[in-house]
């Protein structure tokens, strides 16, 4: 069978070959070779082909990837892999082959070291990746909780305790930490009370700004934080830097006082914001203020120490500061009838310690008087020191001439620096007045506390050269402190890792005001310091010591932005003030919008910031945006009207809180929105004329009304449009809203059970419908009396399409439709029919019928249908609704007449009334037929059934 098949295949192949030979072109040669011969010929052709070109192209492609193809090919060609794992290469080492053993150990050590390093690098990478992921997640979770309002402060477990003398003077554990007392009240109540105390200061500040006077905001904040020593000290630092007086003269003579009173608002803005680095005078003032704050704080420590140890102090009746310091030295250094070793006694007294502590509390003149009392003895031991001290004390910048400074430096380096018995306080005095050895920042037994160390650094700051790169400049000290970081100044003070806020005080001393606010806000203390952060930012913005971020630089996550400096020094910090304020007021703005606005009024203070370009106007826009957001978030009602103002029943307006504070937002009232601006004239006249103001109507009222309208809060939007003087817009909004209200009845709207159910929506929807109808009637009544919303301009001319008049007409007709629905549901279908006929929307009058019974004047109905396209859009949308209402009214009246209920007269009168109703029903059907495609088939069918009921 197989041979037969093969034979048939062979014969078929031959036949195919013959066919191809017969049909091929004459110029095509034939191939008479077997497969083996063809393969051999192909191999010979391949061997003759030169493949060097392909190799060159391949090498070119590999060279682009820095791969040497030719060198690799040669290496592979000379590779002998036969002995790679042969037994000769794995011979065991002989016990006596020391060199091979060492070489093998060295190789193994290299391999293990490489593997260990690779493993450590891999583990470090994954550990860093995990930490970064966790840190980012914690940051996002924290921001999410803030967005949801779930930031709840955590109570500190610290309580007050009696500390020893060393604890009160050594270390910052008692002198700088917050003084805690056990409390039994809920923490939320504590936070609320604290926020109210701070809020009163902001309200007073804005009132003073409206009155054109200055306000000691930092002193007021210090009084509000009187239960927190650390926060009070932080505000004290700012008081010393700004030189803000505790109070202002009384206002008996207001005009003279306003002209002569000091100006606090934006006092330092020009010096601080004009360039990335504060002006030289401001840097000196910052360093001096930081030193004075530390001096004042240490004076209170000395007083508490002396008064708590009266027997050791032996203060006596001398009230001088020098006697107080003498008593303090006795408490600290006098033990068992003798002074502690290490102190150099002059005539039996530790003069150097007394002089140092007097300088430490800022009493330089008292220190000089002490030196003069021991002048002979001091000159004998340290000649020339008293004269140098006098020159240093009398200098306004506490500096010495170069010659005297070099003399003191020689004594300091030659005799005192390396001496083991030198009094440390004398060493500190030499170092201080001559500003020696600035790089060595600690002095043993002198800078024993953090505050002492800081005071020594700021006391040695010298800005006379004006060079920020100088080791004794404030900028150099700031670099050192920032390098140390928060962990060196802010150890955890509780089991949950709460902090006292001391790092913020350190940043204030350095002039890093934005970093200070951010450190308080981002503190790991359960949000308990965020209140202080916001109010610190308020005080800084008021004095012009806060640089705000632009939109391009700012972030929605972090309030602090660090921008690169043009000089290549420290980055320039800036603060997203609007983000900070919004995160703070968001938690209470719904309940108390007026207080939230008080904080928004702070943002326009930074409108004068010159750089980056445009950032000042961005602060105004941010303030306006927050105002609009607060108005939208505030609930309606009397409180809402108290916020933005309102209209009384007689059409007169009463201003709210916001319109009376427009100068704080750099806004001016619009003439058409507030014709009577007497309440604002007094405050507006106090604004600087150089400040550009913007229109309250265009910036606040109209955008907010549009936002309220999009949020389906029509009554509030209408009130804002009315306050803005957009009366035609008010009527237009009413027409649209009433149209939606009527159209929401649907096609089943009727006077029967079904329609009654549709109209009697329960709950909030019914209340809103009633409120809208009431508001519309009141507004139209007032507008009709005052001539508003007529579509005419102020001169009485038409505005073109007379949209206002068309909207008013639509509102009147829609209100009649709603009234007809109410009458119909109450059973007064005759009155409902009369009201619907008065709208003239449907041809229901008897003039549409001819003399014959049931005939209708089609021309009049057609003309009425053509007029339909000229109706208001809201009325066109409600066509199915009021057609159904008309047919229900006709059917209801006809049913009453036929049943004899409420009909007086004989059969003739009843018959005449029914004939009229039939004519009106037929006219209604003709009218609906002409407008058939504007309604659904269900509506047309419902009308047809009603027509049949009337005709029966």
Automatic annotation (TrEMBL):
Keywords: Membrane, mRNA transport, Nuclear pore complex, Nucleus, Protein transport, Translocation, Transport. It comes from the Eukaryota. GO terms for molecular function: structural constituent of nuclear pore. It is found in: Nucleus envelope; Nucleus, Nuclear pore complex. GO terms for biological process: poly(A)+ mRNA export from nucleus; protein import into nucleus. Its main location: nucleus. It holds the Pfam family Nic96. InterPro entries: Nucleoporin_int_Nup93/Nic96. GO terms for cellular component: nuclear pore. The keyword Ribosomal protein does not apply. Signal peptide: none annotated. Belongs to the nucleoporin interacting component (NIC) family. This is Nuclear pore protein. It comes from Lentinula guzmanii.
């Amino acid at each position: 069978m197989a041979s037969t098949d093969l034979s048939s295949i062979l014969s078929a192949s031959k036949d195919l070959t013959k066919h191809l030979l017969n049909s091929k072109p004459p110029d095509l040669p034939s191939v008479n070779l077997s497969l083996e011969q063809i393969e051999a010929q192909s191999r010979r052709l391949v061997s003759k082909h030169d493949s060097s070109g392909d190799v060159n192209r391949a090498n070119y492609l590999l060279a682009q990837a820095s791969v040497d193809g030719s060198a690799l090919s040669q290496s592979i060609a000379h590779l002998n892999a036969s002995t790679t794992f042969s037994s000769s290469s794995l011979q065991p080492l002989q016990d006596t082959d020391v060199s091979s053993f060492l070489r093998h150990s060295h190789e193994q050590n290299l391999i293990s070291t490489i593997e260990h390093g690779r493993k450590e690098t891999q583990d470090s990478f994954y550990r860093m990746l995990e930490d970064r992921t966790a840190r980012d997640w914690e940051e996002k979770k924290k921001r999410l909780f803030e967005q949801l309002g779930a930031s709840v402060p955590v109570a500190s477990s610290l309580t007050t305790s009696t500390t020893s003398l060393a604890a009160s003077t050594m270390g910052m554990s008692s002198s700088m930490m917050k003084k805690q007392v056990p409390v039994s009240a809920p923490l939320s109540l504590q936070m609320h009370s604290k926020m109210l105390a701070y809020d009163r200061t902001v309200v007073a500040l804005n009132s003073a700004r409206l009155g054109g006077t200055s306000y000691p905001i930092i002193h007021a904040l210090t009084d509000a934080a009187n239960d927190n020593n650390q926060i009070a000290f932080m505000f004290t630092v700012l008081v010393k830097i700004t030189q803000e007086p505790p109070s202002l003269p009384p206002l008996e003579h207001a005009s003279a006082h306003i002209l002569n009173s000091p100006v606090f608002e934006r006092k330092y803005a020009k010096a601080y914001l004009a360039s990335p680095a504060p002006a030289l005078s401001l840097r000196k003032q910052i360093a001096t203020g930081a030193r004075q704050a530390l001096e004042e704080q240490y004076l209170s420590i000395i007083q508490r120490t002396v008064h708590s140890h009266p027997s050791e102090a032996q203060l006596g009746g001398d009230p001088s500061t020098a006697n107080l310091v003498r008593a303090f030295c006795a408490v600290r250094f006098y033990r068992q009838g003798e002074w502690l070793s290490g102190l150099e006694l002059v005539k039996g007294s530790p003069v150097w310690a007394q002089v140092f502590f007097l300088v430490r509390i800022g009493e330089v003149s008292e220190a000089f008087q002490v030196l003069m009392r021991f002048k002979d003895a001091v000159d004998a031991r340290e000649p020339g020191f008293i004269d140098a001290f006098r020159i240093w004390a009398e200098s306004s910048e506490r500096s010495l001439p170069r010659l005297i400074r070099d003399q003191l430096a020689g004594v300091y380096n030659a005799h005192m620096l390396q001496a083991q018995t030198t009094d440390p306080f004398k060493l500190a005095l030499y170092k201080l007045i001559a500003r020696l050895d600035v790089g060595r920042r600690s002095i043993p037994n002198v800078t024993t506390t953090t505050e002492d160390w800081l005071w020594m650094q700021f006391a040695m700051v010298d800005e006379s050269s004006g060079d920020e790169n100088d080791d004794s400049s404030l900028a150099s000290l700031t670099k050192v402190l920032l390098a140390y970081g928060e962990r060196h100044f802010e150890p955890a003070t509780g089991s949950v890792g709460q902090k006292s806020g001391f790092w913020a005080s350190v940043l204030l001393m350095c002039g890093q005001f934005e970093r200070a606010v951010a450190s308080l806000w981002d503190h790991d203390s359960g949000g308990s310091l965020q209140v202080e952060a916001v109010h610190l930012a308020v005080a800084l913005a008021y004095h012009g010591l806060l640089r705000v971020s632009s939109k391009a630089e700012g972030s929605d996550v972090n309030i602090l932005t660090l921008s690169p400096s043009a000089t290549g020094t420290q980055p320039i910090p800036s603060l997203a003030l609007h983000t900070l304020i919004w995160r703070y007021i968001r938690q209470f703005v719904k309940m108390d919008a007026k207080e939230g606005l008080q904080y928004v009024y702070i943002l326009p203070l930074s409108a004068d910031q010159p750089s980056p370009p445009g950032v000042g106007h961005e602060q105004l826009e941010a303030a306006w945006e927050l105002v609009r957001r607060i108005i939208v978030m505030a609930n309606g009602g009397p409180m809402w009207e108290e916020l933005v103002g309102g209209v009384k029943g007689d059409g007169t307006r009463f201003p709210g809180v916001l319109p009376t504070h427009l100068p704080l937002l750099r806004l001016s009232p619009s003439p058409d929105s507030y014709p009577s601006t007497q309440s604002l004239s007094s405050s507006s006249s106090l604004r600087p004329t150089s400040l550009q103001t913007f229109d309250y109507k265009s910036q606040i009222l109209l955008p907010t009304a549009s936002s309220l309208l999009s949020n389906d809060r029509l009554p509030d939007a209408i009130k804002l449009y009315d306050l803005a003087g957009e009366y035609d817009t008010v009527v237009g909004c009413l027409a649209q809203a009433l149209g939606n209200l009527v159209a929401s009845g649907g096609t089943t709207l009727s006077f029967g059970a079904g329609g009654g159910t549709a109209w009697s929506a329960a709950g909030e929807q019914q209340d809103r419908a009633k409120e809208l109808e009431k508001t519309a009637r009141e507004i139209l009544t007032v507008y009709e009396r005052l001539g508003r919303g007529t579509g005419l301009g102020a001169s009485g001319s038409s505005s073109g399409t007379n949209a206002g008049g068309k909207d008013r007409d639509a509102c009147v007709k829609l209100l009649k439709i709603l009234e007809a629905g109410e009458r119909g549901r109450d059973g007064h279908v005759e009155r409902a029919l009369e009201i619907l006929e008065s709208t003239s929307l449907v041809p229901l009058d008897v003039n549409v019928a001819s003399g014959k019974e049931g005939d209708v004047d089609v021309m009049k109905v057609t003309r009425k249908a053509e007029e339909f396209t000229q109706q208001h859009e809201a009325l066109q949308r409600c066509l199915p609704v009021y057609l159904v209402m008309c047919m229900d009214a006709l059917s209801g009246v006809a049913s009453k007449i036929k049943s004899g209920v409420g009909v007086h007269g004989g059969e003739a009168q009843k018959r005449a009334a029914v004939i009229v109703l039939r004519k009106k029903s037929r006219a209604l059907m003709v009218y609906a037929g002409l407008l058939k495609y504007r309604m659904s088939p269900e509506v047309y069918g419902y009308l047809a059934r009603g027509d049949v009921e009337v005709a029966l």
